[in-house]
Design brief:
Chain B: It holds the Pfam family Proteasome. Chain B: It is found in: Cytoplasm. The complex is a heterodimer of chains A (290) and B (292). With 290 residues, chain A is of the alpha+beta class. Helix content of chain A is 33%, strand content 19%. Chain B has 292 residues and is an alpha+beta fold. Chain B has nine helices and 13 strands. Classes of the chains: A alpha+beta (290), B alpha+beta (292).
C-alpha cells in the first residue's frame, strides 16, 4: 500500500475525529448528574476493579468512557497534577478548572500532533459549597472543553440518554431519585436491557453499575463509592433497613500473616522485640534477610 | 516549575507515564525541588537555630492505639512555641507524631499524608500498615545528611491494622531512628527529649488490654512525668488552656480527643500528685530549707 503524498489538514482532522468517535461509540455510557447534595456518577460497568469513575482530589471527581488504558493514564495524570499543586500551594488552590484545562491541552495536543487520537471522553466534576457552585466540565477527544449545567452524558448512546435525562431530570433531586432517573436513562439504551420486550431485564442491576458521589456534606474528601447493599437499597432492588451505611471508599486487604523470615520487629506483631536474634535462627535456611 | 507548563500545554510527559503509585517517587522525577531530602545539607551544625519538637508517646489499648504529644517546641534554651501540634493524622487509620527539627518534620508529615492519599487514589486500595511504616522509613533515610547537622527528624508512627490476623492486637506502633531504621514496638513507645522519662512512667502505668480511658490516662501521665524532668517538654498549662494533643485510632478510624477530655484527665493527675505531696509533708517529710 502506498501512502498519499499529500492530505489536506481538513481531511486529516476529519479522519481522526471519525476514528475517535467510532472508538468511543463502541463503549457503554456514563452519566454524571447533579443532585441536592453534590454530584452523582453512574456508569454501566460490569467490572468492579477497572473503574470508569475515580477521585481526583478533595472536591473533584473524574469519569470517562472509551479506551481504558488511555483514560486511566489521564486519570493518574490528573491525580498527580492535583496532588503536586495541592502540596506545593494549598489544598484550596486545586480547582476543577485547572484539571480540566490540563486535560483539554493534553487531549488537544495529542489530537493534532499524533497519528492516533485518544479514543476517550472525560468529565471533570467539582462539588462546591452550594448547588450553584457545582461544576461539570465535559472534555472530548479533540481537547474541546464545555462547562455543562445539570448533567453530562458520555459514551456510545449519549444522545439517547441525554434526551431521556432532559425529560426526567429535576434540579435538586435527592440521591435516590437522581440515581433512579439516571439508571433508567442508561437502561433505556443499554444492550443488556434490549430484550426487555421479550421478558428480559428492563433495568440495569447493581452488579452492572459503578456508582459514586461527590457529597458536599462530607468533610475534606467528598468522593465516595456506593457499592453492595447500599447501592441495591438506593436502586430499590432489595430493601434492607441498615444498608444506607457508608460503604468504605476503598477495599480492605485480605487478612495477612507475617512471612517467615521477615526482619524481626517488622513482620510479627505478637513478638516484635526479637531484634534479629531469636526469630532469625529459626529461618536462616530460608535465605532471609540475615 | 512544571506546574506552570502544565496549565499552558497540558501534562508534561512525566505525568502521563504509568509508573508507580508513589507520590514521592513521582516528585523525584517531576519536581525534585519539592522534596525535603533533595536540598543542600548545611555545612555547619544549625540545630540551635531551628525549633525542635520534643516528646511524643504512643500506647496500644484493647481497641487500637493512642498517640499523644506535648505542646512545646524549643530553640536552644528558648521556648519557641507553647502550642505547637506534633501529632497528625496520617490517613484515616494511622497517626504520626514527630520529634526533632520542627520545620523539616512538619514538611515531612505533609508529604507523607499526600503519599498515602495518592497511593489510595491511584491504586483504589489503602496501603497495608507495614507498607505505610516502610514508606515513612524511606523518607527518614533521605534526611540523614541534615540530621548530622542537628536537623534530625524522628517520628513515631501508629495505626490500626485492618489486616491484623485473628487474635493479634490491631493497634501497632512503629518507631524510627535517624538512619531510617524501623522497629515495631511492643505495647508502648516514646520519642523525643523527654522520652526517657515518659517511658519510665509508662513502664509502671501501662499494661496489656487497657480500656481507652485508662490508656488515655497513661499517655497524659507519661507526658506529665516527662515535663516534670525534661525542660524541653511542656506540661499541662491551665493558664493558657493548653493541654497535650491525643489522637485515638480504633476500628472506626481516627478521633482527636477534645481539649475538655484531656483537661479533665490532666487536672485529675495534677490534683492526685498535689494530694500525695501534701500527705508526705503531713507525715513529717522535711524539705531542704524548712525551719527545724
Amino acid at each position: 500500500m502506498t501512502m498519499p503524498y499529500y492530505a489536506s489538514a481538513e481531511q486529516v482532522m476529519r479522519d481522526r475525529s471519525e476514528y475517535a468517535r467510532k472508538g468511543i461509540s463502541r463503549g457503554r455510557s456514563v452519566a454524571v448528574v447533579t443532585y441536592a447534595d453534590g454530584v452523582l456518577f453512574i456508569a454501566e460497568n460490569p467490572s468492579s476493579t477497572l473503574h470508569k469513575v475515580g477521585e481526583i482530589y478533595d472536591r473533584i471527581g473524574f469519569a470517562a468512557v472509551g479506551r481504558y488504558s488511555e483514560f486511566e493514564s489521564l486519570r493518574v495524570a490528573g491525580v498527580r497534577l492535583a496532588d503536586v499543586r495541592g502540596y506545593s500551594y494549598n489544598r484550596r488552590d486545586v480547582t476543577g478548572r485547572v484539571i480540566a484545562n490540563a486535560y483539554a491541552q493534553t487531549l488537544g495536543a495529542i489530537f493534532t500532533e499524533q497519528m492516533k487520537p485518544y479514543e476517550v471522553e472525560l468529565c471533570v466534576a467539582e462539588v462546591g459549597d452550594r448547588p450553584e457552585t457545582d461544576q461539570l466540565y465535559r472534555l472530548t477527544f479533540d481537547g474541546s472543553v464545555v462547562d455543562e449545567p445539570d448533567f453530562v452524558v458520555m459514551g456510545g448512546q449519549a444522545e439517547a440518554v441525554t434526551g431521556h435525562l432532559r425529560e426526567h431530570f429535576l434540579p435538586g433531586m435527592g440521591l435516590s431519585d437522581a440515581l433512579q432517573v439516571g439508571v433508567r436513562a442508561l437502561s433505556a439504551v443499554s444492550p443488556v436491557t434490549a430484550g426487555a420486550a421479550h421478558g428480559g431485564p428492563s433495568q440495569l442491576t447493581a452488579a452492572q453499575l459503578e456508582v459514586a458521589v461527590l457529597d458536599r456534606r462530607r468533610p475534606k474528601r467528598a468522593f465516595r463509592r456506593i457499592t453492595g447493599s447500599a447501592l441495591r437499597t438506593l436502586l430499590g432492588d432489595e430493601p434492607t433497613p441498615d444498608a444506607v451505611e457508608d460503604a468504605p471508599a476503598t477495599v480492605h486487604h485480605a487478612p495477612s500473616v507475617p512471612e517467615p523470615g521477615t526482619p524481626a520487629g517488622l513482620g510479627d506483631p505478637a513478638n516484635p522485640d526479637t531484634a534479629g536474634e531469636a526469630g532469625f535462627d529459626a529461618h536462616d535456611e530460608d535465605g532471609g534477610e540475615g | 516549575m512544571s506546574d506552570q507548563s502544565a496549565t499552558r500545554s497540558g501534562f508534561p510527559p512525566a505525568y502521563l507515564d504509568r509508573v508507580g503509585s508513589s507520590f514521592t517517587d513521582f516528585l523525584a522525577t517531576a519536581a525534585p525541588d519539592l522534596l525535603p531530602g533533595r536540598r543542600p545539607v548545611p555545612t555547619m551544625p544549625v540545630g540551635d537555630l531551628a525549633p525542635h519538637g520534643t516528646t511524643i508517646v504512643a500506647v496500644t489499648y484493647s481497641g487500637g492505639v493512642l498517640m499523644g504529644g506535648d505542646r512545646r517546641a524549643t530553640m536552644g534554651n528558648l521556648i519557641s512555641s507553647r502550642d505547637i501540634e506534633k501529632v497528625y493524622p496520617a490517613d484515616s487509620y494511622s497517626v504520626i507524631g514527630i520529634a526533632g527539627a520542627a520545620g523539616i518534620a512538619i514538611e515531612m508529615v505533609k508529604l507523607y499524608q499526600v503519599e498515602l492519599e495518592h497511593y489510595e487514589k491511584i491504586e483504589g486500595l489503602t496501603m497495608s500498615l507495614d507498607g505505610k511504616a516502610n514508606r515513612l522509613a524511606a523518607m527518614i533515610r533521605g534526611n540523614l545528611g541534615a540530621a548530622m547537622q542537628g536537623l534530625a527528624v524522628v517520628p513515631l508512627f501508629a495505626g490500626f491494622d485492618l489486616d491484623a490476623a485473628q487474635g493479634t492486637p490491631p493497634g501497632r506502633i512503629f518507631s524510627y531512628d535517624v538512619t531510617g531504621g524501623n522497629y515495631e514496638e511492643r505495647g508502648y513507645a516514646a520519642v523525643g527529649s523527654g522520652s526517657l522519662f515518659a517511658k519510665n512512667s509508662l513502664k509502671k502505668t501501662w499494661q496489656q488490654g487497657l480500656s481507652a480511658d485508662a490508656a488515655t490516662r497513661t499517655v497524659v501521665e507519661s507526658l506529665y512525668d516527662a515535663a516534670d524532668d525534661d525542660s524541653a517538654t511542656g506540661g499541662p498549662d491551665p493558664v493558657r488552656r493548653l493541654y497535650p494533643i491525643v489522637y485515638r485510632v480504633d476500628a472506626e478510624g481516627i478521633v482527636r480527643l477534645t481539649d475538655a477530655e484531656i483537661a479533665a484527665v490532666a487536672d485529675a493527675i495534677v490534683t492526685e500528685r498535689a494530694d500525695a505531696d501534701r500527705r508526705n509533708t503531713e507525715r513529717g517529710a522535711t524539705r531542704p530549707g524548712d525551719q527545724p
